[in-house]
Design a protein that fits this description.
Layout lengths: L19 H8 L2 H12 L6 E5 L5 H9 L4 E6 L2 H14 L3 E5 L12 E7 L7 H14 E12 L5 H14 L1 H8 L3 H7 L3 E11 L2 E9 L5 H4 L16 E3 L2
Parallel strand pairs: 1-2, 1-4, 2-3, 4-5
Antiparallel strand pairs: 3-8, 5-7, 6-7
Helix pairs in contact: 6-7
């Protein structure tokens, strides 16, 4: 997929990609916020789940381990980081479809997924890219499907703002300014989501990681969760590059 050129690597520089898991684990309270995100998502065995900007696959693998049998797809624009993710999945026995592609043009059919997840990804995108990504997430979710996001949140107070400068110096001020200004709920609302809420704030050494939940309009979620026939919603004719463990 040619559209994957020009992406931002996980830690801002390709040379740092092998260090990503170690850095995130040491600086972001990764286990805490990802566990909270998955608990919030309430994934059911019949659900189809998509992790956008999956990086090294930690969240996607955890989602499947939490709910064995659930079908998980995970997408990233970085072939190197997907190779790490596929190796991790293989070592843990997880069966996850790792797809190469951009978040602004997801290679999936409309109304396919019950849950879309994303962690520490949106702050790598400009506002325009964030909006395109949120709209694509809305498109691929089934009616009453839910979006669950963990990312850097609004900096409240001088200490939190000063701590977040390290992230901005690494990942760029243009892409992170929306996060520090607390504009993520506005973003999801602009993409069409309803019931948008910031559900939790988790302090870290570099600032606050906020959890968000948003819902695509449609019937009650209970009516949707029984639809486990996801294969009928596949984009059968859409070319995809897939990495499987």
């Amino acid at each position: 997929m040619d559209g994957t050129k020009g992406f931002t690597p996980a830690l801002g520089f390709h040379v740092l990609t092998p260090l990503y898991d170690r850095v995130v684990a040491l600086t972001t309270r990764e286990r805490t916020f990802k566990r909270a995100l998955l608990e919030q998502a309430v994934i059911e065995p019949s659900h189809l789940v998509l992790d956008v900007g999956c990086g090294t696959g930690t969240l996607a693998i955890a989602a499947q381990r939490q709910q064995p049998g659930v079908r998980v797809s995970a997408l990233d624009a970085d072939p190197a980081v997907l190779a790490i993710a596929a190796r991790k999945a293989r070592n843990t026995g997880a069966d996850i479809a790792f797809d190469l592609g951009r978040s602004s043009a997801l290679p999936y059919a409309d109304d396919r997924f019950d849950r879309v997840l994303s962690s520490l990804f949106f702050h790598h995108l400009t506002w325009g890219e964030k909006l395109l990504t949120a709209r694509e997430m809305y498109r691929v979710l089934r009616p009453a499907g839910e979006l669950h996001v963990a990312d850097w949140g609004r900096a409240r107070g001088l200490v939190s703002r000063a701590a977040f400068l390290a992230i901005q110096l690494l990942d760029g001020f243009d892409t992170t300014s929306d996060n520090v200004a607390g504009r993520m709920p506005e973003l999801f609302g602009s993409a069409g989501f309803g019931h948008v809420e910031e559900t939790r704030r988790i302090p870290t050494v570099f600032g606050v990681i906020a959890l968000y939940r948003a819902v695509k309009a449609g019937p009650e979620a209970g009516e949707i969760s029984s639809r486990g026939d996801g294969e009928s919603h596949l984009a059968r004719d859409q070319p995809r590059k897939t990495h499987r463990p």
